[in-house]
Amino acid sequence: MKKSTKTILIVLLVIAGILFVGKIVFDHVIASDYMISRGIKQRNRRNDEVKENFLNKDKITVVLVGTAGPMSPDIAQNSTAVFVNGQFLLFDAGDYAQKRMEQFNLPGESLDAVFLTHFHNDHIADLGEVMQRSYMLGREKDLVVYGPTGTEDIVSSFNRIYAADSEYRTAHHGEEVMPLEYQFATAQEFDAKLEEVVVYKKDGVVVTAFKTYHPPIEPVFGYVVEYDGKKVVISGDTLVTDALSRHANNADLLVMDVMNYDLVTLMEETFREIGDDQLAQIMYDIREYHPDVADVASMAEKEM
User: Fold this and answer.
1) Is the pLDDT of residue 52 over 70?
2) By mean pLDDT, which of 7-16, 46-55, 221-230, 276-285 is the weakest?
3) In DSSP terms, which residues pair with 88 in a beta bridge?
4) Where are the domains of the chain?
5) Which residues pair with 83 in a beta bridge?
6) What does the DSSP assignment read for 253-293?
7) Dihedral, CA atoms, 38, 42, 45, 50, nearest 10 degrees?
8) Tens digits of residue pLDDT in 230-257
C-alpha cells in the first residue's frame, strides 16, 4: 500500500472515530435532557395527583398501605393512611410500609402524625423509616407519634438510631435543605388505663383512641377519625368487642383486621402433617386474638 493511501485511510479512521464519539456524546446529552425532562414532568404530575387525590380538603381518602402479618416477608405489613382535610395521618407502620407509600406516590413530606395501635413488630417495624424518610423527603413540620403508654420509649429509640444519619445529611446539604429542627419525631403518650380518649384535634379533624382486646397483648387500641360528619374506624388487631361494635356503628368505613379460621385451621393441619410443629402452633394460637370473618359479619348484622 502506498504511503499516501495509508495516510488517507488513517485520516478517514480518525474522522470516523471523532464522529462516532461525537454521536455518543450527543446521544447521551439528548438522552440526559430527555430523562431530566421526563423526571420533572413526572414530579409535576405527582404533585397534581397528590393535591387532587390525597390533600384535597373536600374528601377523605383511605389507603391500605400494608395488610400483611409477621409471617409474610414480601408484603407490606399493617399500615393505613388516612388523608382528611389536607392532613396526612398514618396508623401503624409495619415492615415495608415506607417503601410501599413511596411506590403509591403518597406525599411522605406532608405526614402530620402517626398513631400506634400496639407494639407488635408487624405494626411498628418501619416506624423509624417513616420518621426519617419523611424528613429526608422534605418534611418541614413537627411529626408527632401518638400511642398508649410505652410509645415514648419506642420513638426515642428510633430517634437515637437515626440521629447520626440526620446530622450527616444536614452537615452535607445544609440547614436550608435539611433543617435539624425537624429531624426527630416526638411522642405523645396517652394513659393505657383509659377506655377511651381524644388524642388529636386539628382544623376540625378529631381522632379518638378506644381500648380493644388482643390478649395477651397490652396496651392495645383502635382509633376513630371524624371530620365534617364523616367517620372512619381503624380497629387494629382485636377480637370483636362492645366498644368496637359501638364505634363501628354508623361508620362510613371500617378498616378491620380479620382472618379466615377455616383457612388458618387447614394451614395448621398441613404444618403438623409435614412435621413443622412450630408454625402449626402459631397457626393455632393466632386464632385466639384475631376475629374470623364470620365474627365481623355478625357484628355488622347486630348493628343494622
Assistant:
1) no
2) 7-16
3) 83, 111
4) 50-257, 258-304
5) 61, 88
6) EEE---B-HHHHHHHHHHHHHTT-HHHHHHHHHGGGSS-BH
7) -170
8) 999 999 999 999 999 999 988 999 999 9
The percentage of residues in the chain with a pLDDT greater than 90, rounded to a whole number, is 57
pLDDT tier at 18, thresholds 50, 70, 90: low
Question: What proportions of the chain, in percent to the nearest 5, are helix, strand and coil?
Answer: 50, 25, 30
Cα 200 from Cα 102, distance rounded (Å): 25
Residues 6 or more apart from 226 whose CB is under 8 A from it?
Answer: 205, 206, 207, 208, 232
Query: Residue 96 to residues 30, 64, 102, 160, 230: CA-CA distances in angstroms?
Result: 36, 13, 10, 21, 30
User: What pLDDT shows up at residue 40?
Assistant: 42
- Which tens digits make up the pLDDT trace of 171-214? 888 888 888 888 899 999 999 999 999 999 999 999 999 999 99
What are the two backbone dihedrals, phi and then psi, of residue 266, each rounded to the nearest 5 degrees?
Answer: -60, -40
Which fold is adopted by the domain 50-257? Answer: Metallo-beta-lactamase; Chain A (3.60.15)
- Cell matching residue 96: 415495608
Average pLDDT of the chain?
Answer: 86
d(Cα 109, Cα 99) in Å, to the nearest integer? 14
Residue 113: beta bridge partners? 89, 144
Residue type present at position 54: F
| Beta carbons within 8 Å of 200's beta carbon, 6+ residues apart | 89, 113, 115, 146, 206, 207
Q: What is the reported pTM?
A: 0.82
Cβ neighbours of residue 184 closer than 8 Å, sequence gap 6 or more: 131, 159, 163, 166
- The sign of the dihedral angle between the CA atoms of 20, 22, 28, 30 is negative
- Phi/psi of residue 180, nearest 5 degrees: -65, -20
Gap between the Cα atoms of 191 and 197, Å rounded: 9
The residue type found at 56 is N
Provide the Cα torsion 267, 273, 278, 281; round to 10°.
50
